[in-house]
Specification:
With 283 residues, the chain is α/β, with parallel strands linked by helices. The protein has one domain (59-206, 229-281): 3-Layer(aba) Sandwich (Rossmann fold), CATH 3.40.50.150. It is 41% helix and 14% strand. α5 links the parallel β1 and β2.
């Protein structure tokens, strides 16, 4: 579902036939799905996404660049020996999801997707039917214990062994700093040594009082139940406190270990990705 999106008519047709409800409020997961060219979204999601697109016309390319980071990070983690993944704020299933990348590289890889959006979870479970090494649960990243103690999580994830916790484009929806840093710390504390944390996070490169910034903030705050708050590179780096931050550190998304012959259109102008990324290892 990455790449070119379906037409609005196709989106509307699938939204009506698959879910039968055009009155659903917008969610961050379905807005992101729309930006990626997916079809699991509703009119409210598309309207909110259009506000974001009008303010940041390159946001679709930024979303695709973030998906590229996900795939590179997962391949790196599998090559580093990781065989279990906890994807927090996983969103709507799209082509090249974590289980597809990981299990293609190592068939025994186990993956648990976590999202607060019931549509994201139901779509994930439908896609994963017949895959006994992957599942999805509905939970909130700000309630780590409910995730870490969830029976479906514990069935697939052994926290006494190295695990990769992925928090891609989710922490900027946790606007309260103590809550955001506390949530990350809870997951890091639960990891065994040799585990990894991968983060991508919206960058605060646009002045918060600018017209475009206000438009994006209002699109989420007024049209969804999810506010949004970008953070600086130092603030994003702080999430890796106590971990070994791997080269090249926290950088623009396209700059994190780009592959030879990368097709990422933002590689030559990485700031347009509007997000930072990094991967850390627990000593």
């Amino acid at each position: 579902m990455d790449g070119d999106g379906a037409s609005v008519t196709a989106h509307e047709t699938l939204g009506r036939s698959a879910h039968g409800n055009e009155g659903k409020p917008a969610t961050a997961a379905r807005i992101y799905d729309y930006l990626l060219g997916g079809v699991h979204n509703f009119p409210a999601d598309r309207q909110a996404a259009q506000v974001v697109i009008d303010s940041f016309p390159g946001i679709r390319l930024a979303a695709q660049s973030n998906r590229g980071f996900l795939r590179r990070a997962v391949r790196f983690l599998v090559d580093s020996g990781v065989r279990q993944f906890l994807d927090l704020g996983s969103g709507i299933p799209t082509h090249g999801n974590v289980h597809e990348v990981a299990q293609d590289r190592a068939r025994e890889s186990r993956v648990v997707y976590v999202d607060i959006d019931p549509v994201a979870v139901s779509e994930s479970l439908e896609m994963l039917e017949g895959n006994d090494r992957a599942t999805a649960i509905r939970a909130n990243v700000v309630d780590p214990r409910k995730i870490l103690d969830n029976p479906a999580v514990l069935k697939l994830i052994d926290f006494d062994q190295p695990v990769a916790v992925l928090m891609l484009t989710v922490l900027h929806y946790v606007v309260d700093d103590p809550t955001a840093y506390g949530s990350v710390r809870a997951f890091v504390d639960a990891m065994a040594p040799g585990s990894f944390l991968a983060i991508s996070h919206g960058a605060d490169t646009v002045a918060p009082d600018s017209e475009s910034s206000r438009s994006v903030t209002s699109a989420y705050r007024e049209r969804t139940a999810t506010p949004v708050a970008a953070r600086s590179i130092d603030e994003v780096t702080r999430f890796f406190e106590g971990m070994e931050l791997l080269d090249p550190g926290v950088v623009w998304v396209p700059q994190w270990r780009p592959e030879v012959g990368s097709a990422d259109p933002l590689l030559d102008d990485p700031g347009r990705s509007t997000a930072y990324a990094g991967v850390g290892r627990k000593p």
